[in-house]
Structures are given as structure tokens and as C-alpha cells.
Amino acid sequence: MKMTRMRILMLNYEYPPLGVDYFIDKGSIRNKEYVSKYGLQRLAKGFFDLIVISFWQKFSARPIHVFGGLGLLLGISGTLLGGFMGMERLFFGTGLSDRPLFLLAVLMVIIGIQFIVSGILADIMLKVYYGQNERKNYLIEKQVG
């Protein structure tokens, strides 16, 4: 058995500090076997957190780059898809009403426009936020002179 000595100071406002020695028997404590909490799930969570932080650092001051890029990608691909189906309609006479791909093309264009408008609105909100509070969206590393 292992004895551990512990010194405890009892503080009281009326008397000076009183030191007392205690001996505590630790005995043998049976612990469960160690199971690591570091696995694939924690690794994946850490990886996604890293992606979110890097994404936030890059695009938090310029949301139009994110939303505008996604909007352009969706809008252009929807327009190309719709144009391809329009050409099929003109040259081959295939119907558009019975094809779900045409609805997908229209939906892609509409969502692309919404993404672009959302990016513009977010950019305006950032400009207003930094303009009203006279804050800067950058840090000065070193001031010379």
C-alpha cells in the first residue's frame, strides 16, 4: 500500500493559519483499460473544422466571390443545358414539356441568379457594417514612421 502525505492549511480569520498533516491511503485503484478517443471520426471532424476555418478566413470579407462564383457556375451550366435542349427542339422536334432535364436547367438558372443576388446583398451588408462602426476589415501588422 502506498501512503501519500498531504499538507492542508486551514485558514481562519480569527486564528493564524494552522497546518495539519494527513496521511491518505491510496490503495490500489483498478482502472478500466485505456481506450483511445482519437479515431477516424475525430480525424474527420478536425479536417472539416480546418476546411471551415480556412474558408472563413479567405472569404469572410468578400462573400460575392463565393456566392457569385457558385451563381455563375449554376447559371452558365443551366443556360448551356437549356440552350442544348432548345437546339434539340428546333432541329429535331423533341418536346421540352415531358423532359425533367429542362426543368433542371430552368431551376439552375434561377438558383444561380439567387446566389448572385445573395452575394451582392452580403457584400453590401459588410460595407455598411464596416462603414457605420468605422472599423477596418484588415489588421495593420507594422506601422512605419
Give a short synopsis of this structure.
The chain is mainly alpha-helical and 145 residues long. It contains three helices and two strands; from the N terminus they run E-E-H-H-H.
Could you explain how this protein is built, in words?
The chain has 145 residues and is mainly alpha-helical. Helix content is 57%, strand content 11%. A hairpin with a 7-residue loop joins strand 1 (3-10) and strand 2. Helix 2 (63-92) packs antiparallel against helix 3.
Key phrases:
single chain, 145 residues, two-stranded antiparallel ribbon
The side-by-side strand order for the widest beta sheet comes to: 1-2
SS elements, strand count:
2
Largest sheet: 2 strands, antiparallel
Extract low-pLDDT stretches: none
Mean pLDDT: 82
What is the number of helices? Answer: 3
Q: Decide which structural class fits the backbone.
A: mainly alpha
Query: What is the H/E string?
Result: EEHHH
Helix residue percentage:
55-70%
Fraction in beta strands: 5-15%
Gross morphology is: flat
N-to-C span: 69 Å
What's the gyration radius in Å?
33 Å
Strands, helices and their partners?
Layout: E1 3-10, E2 18-25, H1 40-59, H2 63-92, H3 100-132
Antiparallel strand pairs: 1-2
